[in-house]
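Schema walk-through. Below, the input block comes first and the output block second. Nothing else is stored per chain. Lengths vary across the set, and this one has 244 residues.
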Amino acid sequence: MRKIIIAIDGFSSCGKSTMAKDLAKKLDYRYVDSGAMYRAVTFYFMSKHLDYTQHSIVLSELPNIHIEFHLNTETKNSDTYLNGENVEEKIRGMNVSMHVSNVSTIKEVRHAMVALQKQMSRSKAIVMDGRDIGTAVFPNAELKIFVTANPETRAQRRYKELQVKGEDVTMEEVKQNLAERDHIDSTRKESPLQQAEDAIVLDNSHLSKEQQMEFVYNLVMEKKLMEDIQLHQLHFSQGERDLV
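--- output ---
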């Protein structure tokens, strides 16, 4: 079957990254967590105690930020590397979460990350999740999915995730952080979080991981079949014209 680009967007803590990872594994596609890229940029500024609100600092430091994804042989997932260092765990904490949405609003940062994301898709066969994948990064993606869930479910998921990592945080802090990120992501000038017109909405508030995967995998198979049929029809039409 023809390989396609799958763009998955949605609010934070909707489980879209987990779903995207599992889908990529099932399809043997490459997975890219675009949110991790912005987290890595945020971590870079924070770890060096640089003021990312200063335009001159952002411009001078962006060329020094190099982000890659490498397969973790133990987890079978792609880990985020910043300037050669595995920062996968370091970028997932609450401290980075409190700043990442603000860093993501910076025009130069978004342009740099979008350019890198587009480079990663040259051979297609990719699953990428984020906030603007179906609208700004891959507006022509063959399949776009917009993931959402109710605020309470999202907060519970994020709280459990942070607890497992040993983060000292309250449920109220998590709810406030999610609300602030939603507002910033949805109202920023550069590539705001919004549903692409041709995206299929998946509300996973009451779905298990298995139910989500079944729903999304069926969508992929339907889309790939349609792409194959269209390609066959195109070749058939060209063949007929050649015979005339």
